[in-house]
Amino acid sequence: MSLYRPIVFLVVFHIILGNLGGFAQSGNKKIRMPNLIGMTLNEAKKALHDINLEIGALIYFSDPQDPDSSFVVKQNPPAINEKGDQNYIEKKQVVDLWLVSSGSYRLNFLYPSIKSNGQSILAFVPAGWKILDSAYGDMNKDGLQDAAIILQHKDSVSLVNSLEDTVLTQPRILLLLFKNPTDHKYRLAEQSNSFILKHDNSIIDDSYQGIAIDKGILKIDFHIFHNRGSWYTTSSTYKFRYDGSKFTLIGADLLTIHRATLDYEEYSYNFLIKKRSYTKGNEEKGTKKTTVKSFPLPFLKTFKTFKEPYSWEIEAGINL
Questions:
Q1: Contact present, 222 and 207 (Cβ < 8 Å)
Q2: 197-206, pLDDT tens digit by residue?
Q3: pLDDT at 64 over 50
Q4: Fewer Cβ atoms within 10 Å of its own Cβ: the N or the C terminal residue of the chain?
Q5: Cα distance between residue 76 and residue 59, in whole Å
Q6: Between β-strands 88-89 and 94-100, what pairing exists: parallel, antiparallel or unpaired?
Q7: Contacts of 263 (CB under 8 A, 6+ apart)
């Protein structure tokens, strides 16, 4: 799924702003690229004009009723480069802007209320949402086919992510539903608005890979693949089990591979017995070495205490 696939309407303008009254740095010094995200088009125009930069393409994600009041959600060149440093550019360089209309720009996006009961999984899909993926299996040991579904918002909205960056993305929701043995309706047992990663970075493929229920264990897979900027890929699997009152994280696997050298590191955690295996090897050479150690864990994580993949630094330098 491409980040910009949900475009409804596309308009491209090209505007060259004059330098009258603008501030130009002397000599051959480069200009500090400002962060324009969140500004209206009028504000962005002024900010660029004041430092002798020129607006290039204006790309709208919806029909602009009032173009000057539209909000900037992406810029090129960015204010921060791929290394995480401040970006500096040449004088009079063209800056392209991606914008959304003021009506669709929602930094305070509100997730919908989900019904507590329903005859089918479709009853749990709010207006404006769709089912991205689903899995069936018995999660609470009553012999009935429960359901795990992932919802995705049909339209892209602007959000502030966990890194405090403003991104254009389609929010996702994880719902875990138990089937009632009496009336065979579904009951909402768990909801997470943050655990299923969204596709909000254009240089990273959609990281969500799949969901499954196997022998009562809920498994959720992710894969981080950079189109540029990194030779490493990361795959992870999270395993949750219902303990009678809540879903707890009982295991997780983390694999990192260097695409050029094929060196890899693999971590496998069993949170029930508090042991971790670590394997380091090379896929091409067929070499590997595995070690096992115990680790402290005061309590099992849940969807409420472990809100997002890769946010838990379980060991120094290891984010699960």
A1: yes
A2: 999 887 899 9
A3: yes
A4: N
A5: 11
A6: unpaired
A7: 257, 280, 281, 282
Distance CA(153)–CA(76), nearest Å, equals 26
For residue 63, report the phi and psi dihedrals to the nearest 5 degrees. Answer: -60, 115
Residues 6+ apart with CB under 8 A from 46: none
Could you please report the per-residue DSSP string of 273-311? Answer: TTEEEEEEEETTTTEEEEEEEE---SS--BTTT--STT-
Question: Does the reported pTM lie above 0.90?
Answer: no
Q: Report residue 287 CA to chain centroid gap.
A: 34
pLDDT tier for residue 17 given thresholds of 50, 70 and 90: very low
Cis amide leading into 77 (omega within 30): yes
Residue 15 has pLDDT above 50, yes or no: no
Residues paired with 233 in a beta bridge: 225, 257
Q: Which two tokens stand for residue 295?
A: 């680790």
* Residue carrying the six token digits 């360089």: 93
Q: What's 216's DSSP letter?
A: T
